[in-house]
What we know:
Layout lengths: L18 H6 L7 H15 L14 H11 L3 E4 L6 H7 L7 E4 L15 H10 L6 E4 L4 E5 L6 H4 L1 E3 L1 H5 L10 E3 L1 H4 L3 E6 L6 H5 L2 H4 L4 E3 L2 E3 L5 E7 L2 H4 L6 H6 L2 E4 L6 H11 L8 H16 L11 H25 L19 H4 L14 H21 L5 H5 L7 E3 L5 H8 L5 H7 L8 H17 L4 E4 L5 E4 L3
Parallel strand pairs: 1-10, 1-11, 4-7, 7-10
Antiparallel strand pairs: 2-3, 5-6, 8-9, 12-14, 13-14
Helix pairs in contact: 2-3, 13-14, 13-15, 14-15, 14-17, 17-21, 19-21
Amino acid sequence: MTAPNQVLPVPPADLPGTLGALRTGGHQYRTVKQELRDNLLARMRTGEDRFPGIVGYDDTVLPEVERALLAGHDMVLLGERGQGKTRLIRSLVALLDEWTPVIPGSALNEHPLHPLTPASRALVAEAGDDLAVGWLHRSARYGEKLATPDTSVGDLVGDVDPIRLAQGRTLGDPETIHFGLVPRTNRGIFAVNELPDLAERIQVALLNVLEERDIQVRGYQLRLPLDLFLVASANPEDYTNRGRIITPLKDRFGAEIRTHYPVDLELELALVRQEADLVAEVPEHLLEVLARFARAVRESPSVDPRSGVSARFAIAAAETVAAAALRRSGLLAGAAADGVRGEAPVARVGDAVSVTSTLRGKVEFESGEEGREIEILAHLLRTATAETFRARLAGLDLSGFTALVAEDTVIETGELVASAELLRQVGTVPGLAKALDRLGLGDAPTPEQAAAGVEFVLEGLHLTRRLGKDVTESGRTVYGGRG
């Protein structure tokens, strides 16, 4: 889909410029649904990726979407928030022809071989093969409307233009109509996000569009056979409580497809890697902690299961810990003496603590948990950290780390503790190289990466009751013996 204010591509010079040249070149008129079907089949035969950027739906949702496209069915995607419904809908645009011919100036993107309005039919009859042909890029063939309570029939379908009436046209003249978003997306894909939020009387206006493919405005009917692929998204009705899809409209969608959250940890991780815009390095083991954290929140009995926990939760968490690392880097650089090496921004497990407060607004808790939100999230984060520690370092001899705090020795770390300072306290530890390798930090980690690995091991040992931990008034974390 074309980004806002992006310049549309320029049609290639070798495309036919007249209706006669279009016919001579053997161009065949196809409906939008025929285009989608043919291009989907072509990608299947060549093995090309049919839905780039869509993660976790290969064996579940995408086969159902493909069956709907091949059958020519309009569809509605049902699922909780943050399941990628809009992303999936927008990816359908790539299955349209890259360029399609249009009658220049047509508000309905009419095909030169298939004009709809009386004015366009008259223009084609008058100009014949000399009719100029324009070309529309597929990125301009997508329309989208977020359903809001103030959406009107005029917004979606159209309304009478009083200025044109004042110019002397009669009320039944199609030229008096200012077309809405749906007809203006003729020969394209139109999406309605959060369809239940549309007032029921507004949903009624879409009945003819879906079944009879015509539109009605102000009490009279225009026989304009629209060529559209209509797709909608909706949250489960029992969660939104803001409305419902009326039964006649629901019946007109050929396919109702349920979406879902990533089914396993690897898919959750793949989604975070793909979508997160990280301003600092976040080691792989920490991304795993955040992915496990998101899944633990989603499955927690303290969280309302009807609302879901968006995939954006883990993405935002990764971006937050990256920002914490960048903040530490900036502050330490300001405090460093001249000639001292700066701190590269690498996230540590201690940076994840901040997400419990910044992301609690993304979670709908059960009514009985009021006031305990941060406590619940902090517990789930500790659980995710411990699970990742066991998964990554199980069976590894970490006695060298526990020996560090023998005889009342302590190790201090924290948000503003430099990597060099942490590594100086630790020194040479038996088993450190193997631990860093298990954490995916490689054979020659930087000091910042090594510090991130060390802090994770210390936190994991604390969570598995092998080290004590205390937080000082200045915000530093102190690891020591269990006393």
